[in-house]
Design goal:
Helices cover 12% and strands 30% of the residues. It is an alpha+beta fold. It has one domain (11-132): Metal Binding Protein, Guanine Nucleotide Exchange Factor, Chain A. It catalyses: L-methionyl-[protein] + [thioredoxin]-disulfide + H2O = L-methionyl-(R)-S-oxide-[protein] + [thioredoxin]-dithiol.
Length: 134
């Protein structure tokens, strides 16, 4: 994965394509309540893709139970899949993560994950779809 072709759509086009929950998270930078979104407790073998554009984001073998209420991963499928942005909202400084292809809000990344990266990509379940692999 190298050059990522950007997807641009109007808000109306995104609303037609996405569920209300997906639109809130991906296009309005919303956050689902902890332990309420899909994939939080799922550890099936497969791949997690962006719900907005289908770009591969994370593999199941990098998913771990962080106990935080959101699906967590220690490594993206490729560095180019994720865009990191400083987020200074809510009285704190965090690193927001977005899909590099459609600019959909995915969640945040924190430096408190397990080896080998020490990172915890904390995602909204509604920002992703899952493809089972056998």
């Amino acid at each position: 994965m190298t050059d990522v072709a950007k997807i641009k759509k109007t808000a109306a086009e995104w609303q037609e394509q996405l569920t209300a929950e997906q639109f809130h998270v991906l296009r309005q930078s919303g956050t689902e309540r902890p332990f309420t979104g899909p994939y939080c407790n799922s550890f099936d073998h497969g791949r997690y893709d962006c719900a907005g554009c289908g770009q591969p984001l994370f593999l199941s073998d990098t998913k771990f139970d962080a106990g935080c209420g959101w699906p967590s991963f220690f490594k993206a499928v490729a560095p180019e899949a994720i865009t990191e942005i400083e987020d200074a909202t809510l009285g704190m400084v965090r690193t927001e993560i977005r899909c590099s292809k459609c600019d959909g809000h995915l969640g945040h990344v924190f430096p408190d994950g397990p080896p080998p990266t020490g990172l915890r990509y904390c995602l909204n379940g509604h920002a992703m779809t899952f493809t089972h692999e056998t």
